[in-house]
């Protein structure tokens, strides 16, 4: 796996990748990457993000939804959302369009 980061912004579109299956287990999400056979887990907020990326959405729209649902400072949310998307993209669980390699 490359150590390079994906560069994306609020206009980038994010969607769940086709090579995965997921299951809601209470307030958490279990995701299996079908090609690697690796399982991933998401906490409650990560699960909400996962629900939102089941259809293609702009990252800015996801941020707006989360700001309306959770009490969090906008700057912190932006950083943590991008970090989560980086992690999910590197694992092959989501696809980000308009993203470039840095």
Number of strands: 8
| Rg value | 13 Å
Main sheet, how many strands, which sense, barrel?
A: 3 strands, antiparallel
Count up the domains: 1
| Level-2 CATH architecture | Alpha-Beta Complex
Percent helix, as a range, is 25-40%
Distance between the termini: 14 Å
> What oligomeric state do the depicted chains represent?
single chain
Average pLDDT for all residues: 91
Structural class: alpha+beta
Per the CATH scheme, the topology name is Outer Surface Protein A, domain 3
What share of the residues does DSSP label as strand, in percent? 25-35%
Per the principal axes of the C-alpha atoms, what is the gross shape?
Answer: globular
Poorly predicted residue ranges: none
Q: Which terms would index this structure?
A:
single chain, 102 residues, alpha+beta, Outer Surface Protein A, domain 3, three-stranded antiparallel β-sheet
